[in-house]
């Protein structure tokens, strides 16, 4: 008669045990900040639809030191997320494209290039739009 | 868990003057132990010894009841995966010299049920492997006479047609993923598998991907259901540690991400294209 | 008192799930989709020792090659102890098995045009060794295992350790097995049984074999009344790593690797394999591409002359691959690179690898006819555990992977056919037979003896290595046999300390030791009685040469309950190739010319 195998209790702090897990948890945690900031943005759009007074109040709130700190933190978190995401992006690529072996470094550089160009375009557009 | 100071010295134990090293091995014998405990073994330090040699010494000279799986001792049969100081490795490819003089903690592979001592329950993996249909499914096989178990006549015909063409480039699309030795280190490395034992997991997905990438195979659609369900590729959150511990550089993390891309593309196409065109 | 056991019924029972067992199971499942095929193995199929084969599998494929060439290479490689009808069947069916495997997805290495590539191999006149880099056995095994998963009528029993065949009324009708993870005993009853349990290299101390290669199947069949044949022929592979014995494939030399002694001299030219071929231009059947027995023997002589390189792990010669360049090494021999790095700390692209001969393969085994049928009705054998008559006195590299496919398939089909023509088993007689065997097993497990199995194992392996190595002497062999007999007596007093049931590996290794000792005795007796030198059996006493008059015969060994094997001989089946001098290098070329360059 078979006894069922022994299952060891799982360590609730498993993610603290290895550096690779800790880095992973940091990467995942960045999304919390980005998520909250997106909520803030949605709130802004909502305020915009409610008229000028509501919109201005929202804008003023954005300049509050607390909000500035939060936005700055979110920016850093977004950069962490971007860096880690770009670093693992090559793994999601096929090994060959159009018969040519995909070079991992090129994929990472390509991502940063596109990221830089889009950011530049947005900056220019916002600056000119204002 | 406690570490009982067991005295296992026998007449063959090394004399005090020789260099020694300590192994703390997790012991569990169902029916004898109610839960696993660490047992300490003092063994001679031999520079060339792999962990497998060390375990062999313990089994032959100190405690014959120690159980573990092993066979090829050249890192290809996949039997001897264990945790050394909390890192999943093959015992035959891990050496005392990389730890000496510190004591080494030896445990069965994490995230699996323990049958006994360092022996884990591999049955769930075998079921997962089977569920992804890891074999060539080709267009010919769908012909009425070509089903598995079809009369030998059909097989003979196709054999006489000779081997399929497959260029080195086509081979390179999947050969890396065919290197999986089913040692299960990747499952021990995967926290998602630890949290959700139903997760298909790195090795099974890599082997599914290996066949999906093979130009002789037509079975993508047959494998899709197992891969695309919640416990399939979508349970992976890309921790990436599976690829780090893989002794054969299979890179299961990449296989999983590529299957996610395939799954997402197929899903998008199923909305965009009319039914007949898919 | 016998313990209770469960019974499992099947039509075909395949024991062993390595290359031959899986190929048999698939063939049986295809031949009769309604038949229940039980595939029993003491390890998970992908752990089987086929996984360690590296170099490749032979099958004629090039236009300038021929089946006749493959036939001649095999027969002369085997020093004319091959059954030539079997060799013919083999060469005719090897290539289609390679193609079959290709259709099942085996990732054979390819040429640019997409056709399968072949490489040079020792003793083969033309390149005909199909390969998947240097992991051919691994890929063959995994391809077969994964393919087998699609047959619903193959029922796997992984990690079941078979102990005894059930033979009643001259028919083999089942097997007794221990379920390793529970320690429970299961009795399998079937209408046909295929043994595919591999070799017995672990009888020797220094070997290339995995821990599981302990000859359980050979011993089981022998005890059940089947005949063991040509067991004195044990192959030394010329290139194992010192210390561990890890295999360094012949493919290294096929790709152009050279062997050097301590003076940097390619010593093989002094042993009838020359003249020296230019580095980077290997020639078939010359120098490093001579057969395994000759190369291992050359090492022995070099060691005696003091020409080998002393290493901390023992004497060695150097396998130099540096001229092949890193790119080619990584493409063709990636596993060798990794093994050398891990186990001897050497990068083959920069330094030569120290190597020495190690026991690799048992040419002999369970005697079968050309249809894989043994002496016992309903019992078939295929692969290394069998002696179908293919390898003779020395196996050529890459013939064994091909063998397990060709004859694995035959065994599966034969067994399925036999099963379909058999009446149902007579349960009562079989179960009462099983009960007795189970009682013996339980008695051994619970016995309070004085001998430690691991001690006996070490002594056996050392004795076999000393007396039955590359070269053998009559009086040394006698001493070796005496030691084995003494160990067999002590084995009766063996003590299994571990009395637990789940995964009791001490008990299983004790049973394996029993098998090894049984086979060691057969090997030793066979060797002692063969008073000539042929292939892998080389004597240094009064019998230094081949004696076709007396010993162009297979050695047969039958079990006797008194513990002394019964010796007999049988004729070799020679159809068209009459024995002549075995010649390689320039001498081989000369011989060929004299015969009109066949």
TrEMBL record, chain A:
Keywords: Cell membrane, Membrane, Transmembrane, Transmembrane helix
CC terms in the record's Gene Ontology section: membrane
InterPro entries, alphabetized: Fumarate_red_C (IPR003510), SQR/QFR_C/D (IPR034804)
Pfam families attached to this UniProt entry: Fumarate_red_C
Domain of life: Bacteria
Transmembrane intervals: 24-46, 66-88, 109-128
Protein name as catalogued: Fumarate reductase subunit C
TrEMBL record, chain B:
Alphabetized GO MF terms: 2 iron, 2 sulfur cluster binding; 3 iron, 4 sulfur cluster binding; 4 iron, 4 sulfur cluster binding; electron transfer activity; metal ion binding; succinate dehydrogenase (quinone) activity
Keyword hit for Repeat: no
One GO CC annotation: plasma membrane
Membrane topology: Peripheral membrane protein
InterPro entries: 2Fe-2S_ferredoxin-like_sf, 2Fe2S_fd_BS, 4Fe4S_Fe-S-bd, 4Fe4S_Fe_S_CS, Beta-grasp_dom_sf, Helical_ferredxn, Succ_DH/fum_Rdtase_Fe-S, Succ_DH/fum_Rdtase_N
Superkingdom, natural source: Bacteria
Domain 4Fe-4S ferredoxin-type: 170-200
Top EC group: oxidoreductase
Major localisation: membrane
Subcellular localization: Cell inner membrane; Membrane
Pfam annotation, one family: Fer2_3
Enzymatic reactions: a quinone + succinate = fumarate + a quinol
Region called Disordered, residue ranges: 145-164
Keyword Iron-sulfur: yes
EC number: 1.3.5.1
Keywords noted in UniProt: 2Fe-2S, 3Fe-4S, 4Fe-4S, Cell inner membrane, Cell membrane, Electron transport, Iron, Iron-sulfur, Membrane, Metal-binding, Oxidoreductase, Transport, Tricarboxylic acid cycle
Necessary cofactors: [3Fe-4S] cluster; [2Fe-2S] cluster; [4Fe-4S] cluster
Coiled coil: none
Biological process terms in GO annotation: anaerobic respiration; tricarboxylic acid cycle
Self-association state and partner proteins as the record states: Part of an enzyme complex containing three subunits: a flavoprotein (frdA), an iron-sulfur protein (frdB), and diheme cytochrome b (frdC).
Similarity field: Belongs to the succinate dehydrogenase/fumarate reductase iron-sulfur protein family.
Protein name, as recorded: succinate dehydrogenase
TrEMBL record, chain C:
Residue ranges annotated for the Fumarate reductase/succinate dehydrogenase flavoprotein-like C-terminal domain, each copy included: 457-584
Entry EC number(s): 1.3.5.1
Catalytic activity line of the entry: a menaquinone + succinate = a menaquinol + fumarate; a quinone + succinate = fumarate + a quinol
Cell compartments where the protein resides: Cell inner membrane
Chain spans, region Disordered: 578-598
Keywords: Cell membrane, Electron transport, FAD, Flavoprotein, Membrane, Nucleotide-binding, Oxidoreductase, Transport
Keyword Transcription regulation appears in the UniProt entry: no
Binding sites annotated in the UniProt record for substrate: 237, 249, 360, 395
GO terms of molecular function: electron transfer activity; flavin adenine dinucleotide binding; succinate dehydrogenase (quinone) activity
Class in the EC hierarchy, top level: oxidoreductase
Feature: compositional bias, Polar residues: 589-598
Domain FAD-dependent oxidoreductase 2 FAD-binding, chain residue ranges per copy: 11-401
SUPFAM superfamilies noted in UniProt: FAD/NAD(P)-binding domain, Succinate dehydrogenase/fumarate reductase flavoprotein C-terminal domain, Succinate dehydrogenase/fumarate reductase flavoprotein, catalytic domain
Main location: membrane
GO process terms (BP): anaerobic respiration; electron transport chain; fermentation
Bilayer disposition of the protein: Peripheral membrane protein
Cofactor(s) needed: FAD
Family: Belongs to the FAD-dependent oxidoreductase 2 family. FRD/SDH subfamily.
Official protein name in the record: Fumarate reductase flavoprotein subunit
Species annotation: Marinobacter orientalis
Lineage summary: Bacteria, Pseudomonadati, Pseudomonadota, Gammaproteobacteria, Pseudomonadales
């Amino acid at each position: 008669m078979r006894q069922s195998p022994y299952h060891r209790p799982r360590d609730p702090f498993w993610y603290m045990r290895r550096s690779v897990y800790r880095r992973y948890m940091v990467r995942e945690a960045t999304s919390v900040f980005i998520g909250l900031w997106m909520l803030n943005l949605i709130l802004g759009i909502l305020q915009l639809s409610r008229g000028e007074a509501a919109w201005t109040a929202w804008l003023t709130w954005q300049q509050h030191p607390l909000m500035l700190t939060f936005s700055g933190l979110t920016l850093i978190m977004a950069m962490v997320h971007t860096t880690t995401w770009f670093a693992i992006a090559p793994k999601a690529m096929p090994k060959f494209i159009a018969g040519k072996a995909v070079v991992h470094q090129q994929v990472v550089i390509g991502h940063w290039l596109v990221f830089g160009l889009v950011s530049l375009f947005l900056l220019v557009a916002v600056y000119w739009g204002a | 868990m406690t570490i009982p100071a067991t005295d296992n010295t026998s007449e063959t134990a090394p004399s005090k003057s020789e260099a020694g090293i300590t192994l703390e091995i997790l012991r569990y014998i169902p029916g004898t132990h109610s839960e696993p405990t660490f047992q300490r073994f003092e063994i001679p330090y031999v520079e060339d010894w792999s962990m497998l040699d060390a375990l062999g010494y313990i089994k032959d000279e100190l405690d014959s009841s120690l159980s573990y799986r092993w066979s090829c001792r050249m890192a290809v049969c996949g039997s001897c995966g264990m945790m050394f100081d909390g890192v999943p490795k093959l015992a035959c490819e891990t050496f005392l010299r990389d730890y000496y003089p510190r004591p080494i903690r030896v445990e069965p592979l994490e995230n699996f049920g323990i049958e006994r001592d360092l022996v884990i329950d591999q049955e769930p993996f075998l079921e997962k492997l089977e569920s992804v249909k890891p074999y060539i499914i080709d267009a010919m096989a769908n012909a009425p006479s070509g089903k598995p178990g079809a009369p030998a006549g059909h097989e003979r015909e196709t054999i006489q047609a000779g081997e399929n063409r497959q260029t080195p480039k086509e081979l390179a699309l999947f050969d890396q993923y065919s290197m999986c030795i089913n040692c299960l280190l990747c499952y021990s490395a995967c926290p998602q598998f630890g949290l959700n034992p139903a997760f298909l997991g790195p090795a099974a997905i890599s082997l599914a991907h290996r066949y999906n990438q093979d130009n002789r195979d037509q079975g993508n659609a047959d494998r899709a259901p197992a891969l695309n369900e919640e416990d399939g590729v979508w349970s992976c959150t890309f921790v990436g540690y599976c690829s780090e511990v893989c002794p054969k550089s299979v890179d299961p993390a990449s296989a999983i991400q590529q299957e996610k891309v395939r799954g997402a593309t197929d899903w998008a196409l199923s909305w965009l294209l009319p039914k007949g065109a898919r | 008192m016998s313990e209770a056991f469960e019974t499992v019924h099947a039509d075909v029972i395949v024991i062993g799930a390595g290359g031959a067992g899986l190929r048999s199971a698939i063939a049986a499942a295809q031949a009769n989709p309604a038949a229940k095929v039980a595939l029993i193995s003491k390890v998970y199929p992908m752990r089987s020792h086929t996984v360690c084969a590296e170099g490749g599998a032979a099958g004629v494929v090039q236009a300038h090659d021929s089946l006749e060439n493959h036939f001649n290479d095999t027969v002369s490689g085997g020093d004319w102890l091959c059954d030539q009808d079997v060799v013919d069947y083999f060469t005719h069916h090897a290539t289609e098995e390679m193609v079959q495997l290709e259709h099942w997805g085996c990732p054979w290495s390819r040429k640019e045009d997409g056709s399968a590539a072949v490489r040079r191999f020792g003793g083969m006149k033309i390149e005909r060794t199909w390969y998947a880099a240097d992991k051919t056995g691994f890929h063959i095994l995994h391809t077969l295992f994964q393919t087998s998963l699609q047959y619903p009528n193959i029922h796997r029993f992984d990690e079941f350790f078979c102990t005894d065949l059930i033979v009643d009324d001259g028919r083999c009708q089942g097997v007794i097995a221990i379920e390793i993870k529970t320690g429970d005993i299961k009795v399998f009853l079937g209408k046909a049984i295929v043994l595919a349990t591999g070799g017995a290299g672990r009888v020797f101390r220094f070997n290339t074999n995995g821990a599981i290669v302990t000859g359980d199947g050979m011993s089981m069949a022998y005890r059940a009344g089947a005949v063991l044949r040509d067991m004195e022929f044990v192959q030394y592979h010329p290139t194992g790593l010192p210390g561990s014995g890890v295999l360094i494939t012949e493919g290294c030399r096929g790709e152009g690797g050279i062997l050097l002694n301590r003076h940097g001299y390619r010593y093989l030219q002094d042993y009838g394999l020359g003249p020296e071929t230019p580095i980077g231009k290997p020639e078939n059947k010359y120098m490093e591409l001579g057969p395994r027995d000759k190369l291992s023997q050359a090492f022995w002589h070099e060691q005696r002359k003091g020409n080998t390189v002393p290493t901390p792990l023992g004497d060695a010669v150097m396998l130099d691959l540096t001229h092949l360049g890193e790119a080619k090494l990584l493409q063709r021999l990636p596993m060798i690179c990794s093994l050398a790095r891990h186990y001897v700390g050497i990068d083959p692209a920069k330094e030569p690898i120290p190597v020495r001969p190690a026991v690799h393969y048992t040419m002999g085994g369970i005697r079968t006819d050309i249809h894989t049928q043994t002496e016992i009705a309903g019992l078939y054998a295929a692969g290394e555990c069998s002696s179908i008559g293919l390898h003779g006195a020395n196996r050529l590299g890459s013939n064994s992977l091909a063998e397990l496919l060709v004859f694995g398939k035959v065994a599966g089909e034969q067994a399925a056919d036999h099963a379909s023509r058999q009446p149902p088993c007579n349960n009562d007689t079989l179960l009462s037979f099983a009960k007795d065997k189970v009682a013996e097993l339980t008695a051994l497990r619970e016995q309070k003896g004085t001998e430690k199995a691991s001690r006996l194992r070490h002594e056996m392996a050392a004795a076999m290595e000393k007396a039955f190595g590359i070269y053998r002497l009559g009086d040394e062999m006698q001493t070796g046999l005496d030691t084995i007999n003494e160990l067999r007596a002590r084995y009766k007093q063996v003590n299994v300390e571990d009395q637990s049931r789940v995964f009791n590996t001490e008990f299983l290794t004790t049973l394996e030791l029993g098998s090894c000792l049984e086979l060691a005795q057969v090997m030793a007796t066979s060797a002692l009685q063969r008073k000539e030198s042929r292939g892998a059996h080389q004597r240094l006493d009064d019998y230094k040469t081949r004696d076709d008059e007396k010993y162009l015969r297979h050695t047969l060994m039958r079990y006797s309950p008194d513990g002394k094997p019964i010796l007999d001989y049988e004729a070799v089946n020679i159809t068209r190739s009459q024995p002549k001098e075995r010649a390689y290098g320039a001498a081989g070329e000369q011989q060929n010319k004299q015969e009109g360059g066949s």
